[in-house]
Amino acid sequence: MTHRFIAACRREPVDRIPVWMMRQAGRYQPSYRAVRANVSFLELCRSPELIAQVTLAPIDEFGFDAAILFSDILVHLPAMGLDLSFEKGEKGKGDGGPKIANPVRTRADVDALKIPDPQKDLPYVLDGVRAIRKGLAGRVPLIGFVGGPFTVASYVVEGGSQGFTRLKTMLWADPKAAHALFEKLTQAAIVQIQAQIAAGAEAAQIFESWLGELAREDLEEFAFPHLARIAEAVKKTGVPSIFFSTGTTSHLERIAKLGYDVISVDWRIPIEDARARVPGVAIQGNYDSTLLLGPKDNAVARAQAMLRAAGPRPGYIFNLGHGIQVGTPTETVKAVVDAVHAFTWK
Ligand SMILES: Cc1c2[nH]c(c1CCC(=O)O)Cc1[nH]c(c(CCC(=O)O)c1C)Cc1[nH]c(c(CCC(=O)O)c1C)Cc1[nH]c(c(C)c1CCC(=O)O)C2
């Protein structure tokens, strides 16, 4: 029988509303922090056994309807020739953000980038996918993922989480270099997502988190053509595709034409508006993750209100508008997941 998460991606009727949460494996969980006490973030991403362990933990703990591969949108950068590390954050707060010691600034830097070979360069990701599928034993589907070209480029050009000014300046000052960079990052995304699917991923999410930084004409020139190619590549494999971004709901109708089965929206749009504006795709979202930091009863009530607003029409997946935050109480996550599963319109 088709699982309710896959059914919702395809806009088919479901027995209960499927729910998962972006970053559902992470530092808000004591079990994750225990694993990270002994290994760095990149060591964790490179161990198939640990990948499987941390991916499965939130499924067992909260009963989510989908698992998401534990990895990162930047894991392939060393294979492209970039010196990636995750900085140590403040003591007791885990690692800080990503750092790239040799960021891409010129056309020559772009030309030097290699396209990764997932079998050779990222075997631990694919072994991780296989280990997760084994551990899941068919309980819920596994989502594979890659970063979108604009979002990955922002780290590659800025050298870390330092905004978008350098990358956007490159668009105007050297558009040929920018196009060449997006082209390489698109190819890298396609080979990775295809390899994850071949290894057993049953859906694919594209994290284009920072797309809302671009104006419409720049989206048309530098982003949408690449994102449509990634959608096309996933479509050929037969698994459902999910497109995630933030700050982009003013372009929702256009994004719905990129070829993805599901569009993940943030909390800046009422969920009923998102569903009404693009009835030809499934919608995922759009709960404000900060609500999970507040009182549990309010978090549950707001989840129920969102479901009422989303309405009974097939093609809806409960998720957050962006990732779950450090400090989120696990009891609140459990209460919200249970409330989604208990919800009916009758
Ligand atoms: C922008 C981005 C990155 N990585 C990712 C994105 C896009 C999604 C988004 O917008 O939130 C994607 C990502 N990163 C991670 C996942 C795992 C799957 C999941 O549970 O959703 C996914 C899907 C684990 C992670 N990726 C990272 C962590 C924290 C690392 C730790 O354990 O200390 C996790 C669990 C580190 C990371 N990785 C990245 C940054 C900026 C940081 C530092 C910020 C932070 O610490 O939260 C790059």
TrEMBL record:
The keyword Ribosomal protein does not apply. Residues 18-27, 143-159 form the Uroporphyrinogen decarboxylase (URO-D) domain. PROSITE patterns: UROD_1, UROD_2. InterPro entries: UROD/MetE-like_sf, Uroporphyrinogen_deCO2ase_HemE, Uroporphyrinogen_deCOase. Catalyzes the decarboxylation of four acetate groups of uroporphyrinogen-III to yield coproporphyrinogen-III. Signal peptide: none annotated. Substrate binds at residues 23-27, 72, 155, 209, 322. It is an enzyme of class 4 (lyase). It catalyses: uroporphyrinogen III + 4 H(+) = coproporphyrinogen III + 4 CO2. It is found in: Cytoplasm. Homodimer. Transmembrane segments: none annotated. The keyword Lyase applies. The record marks 72 as: Transition state stabilizer. It comes from Anaeromyxobacter oryzae. The lineage of its organism: Bacteria, Pseudomonadati, Myxococcota, Myxococcia, Myxococcales. Its EC number is 4.1.1.37. Pathway: Porphyrin-containing compound metabolism; protoporphyrin-IX biosynthesis; coproporphyrinogen-III from 5-aminolevulinate: step 4/4. This is Uroporphyrinogen decarboxylase. Pfam families: URO-D. The gene is hemE. Keywords: Cytoplasm, Decarboxylase, Lyase, Porphyrin biosynthesis. Belongs to the uroporphyrinogen decarboxylase family.
